[in-house]
Design goal:
Blueprint: H1 2-15, E1 44-54, E2 69-79, E3 84-94, E4 102-112, E5 117-128, E6 131-141, E7 146-149, E8 153-157, E9 160-164, E10 166-170, E11 175-179, E12 182-184
Antiparallel strand pairs: 1-2, 2-3, 3-4, 4-5, 5-6, 6-7, 6-8, 7-10, 8-9, 9-12, 10-11
């Protein structure tokens, strides 16, 4: 009530002002009133040290569950109205039930919360134990529980060296499939 009274008094005092003595008319000028330029809305939210996760909610049975995929980015940007994060210097982890998780490092990537997918690109390195895979990019599909790339890959594991045209990792079944692979596998007495 006090604010309404103060507003009414302020408006009354403004409208009862003295006419200007400079001979300038107090009548409003003809034409549209000038408008102030609107401040542009930010097109993206930028953050540092972002951590994002994906879960498999179908398998929880009401229990607390660790994520299926986790990524930390030194810098991230979320476009306004979108659910896709652009990532810089990403470090990711694909969780496995046996505890031998995949660790991934990449220069950049995207985390699409709506599609439940993440794409990491640029000097990508995936490691798990003694296994190292170097590739251009890798795509994580949370609904399928798979990681894949249709670009060339280089795999090393101890004395094993393989080059392939593509890769698919099915985390649930624990299978790694290489397409058009060639390379060197050294068999030892323990592997025969």
């Amino acid at each position: 009530m006090k604010y309404e009274l103060l507003t009414a008094i302020s408006l009354l005092l403004i409208s009862c002002g003295q006419p200007a003595e400079s001979g300038v008319s107090s009548e409003p000028a003809a034409g549209p009133a000038p408008t102030l330029p609107e401040e542009p809305a930010p097109s993206a939210m930028k953050m540092e040290g972002v951590e994002l996760r994906m879960y498999d909610f179908e398998r929880t049975d009401g229990e607390l569950q660790k994520p299926t995929f986790f990524v930390h980015a030194d810098a991230a940007q979320l476009a306004e109205g979108e659910k896709v994060w652009s990532l810089q210097k990403a470090v990711a982890r694909i969780f496995r039930e046996d505890g031998e998780d995949f660790h991934i490092e990449a220069l950049e990537g995207q985390f699409d919360d709506a599609r439940k997918e993440a794409v990491l690109k640029g000097a990508v390195r995936l490691t798990a134990g003694s296994l190292t895979i170097d590739l251009e990019d890798i795509t994580w599909k949370n609904e399928e529980n798979t990681a894949s790339s249709d670009n060339p890959v280089h795999l090393t594991n101890g004395d094993t060296r393989l080059d392939a045209q593509n890769i698919r990792i099915d985390v649930e079944t624990g299978t790694l499939t290489l397409g058009e692979a060639s390379g060197f596998i050294q068999f030892t007495e323990s592997t025969l």
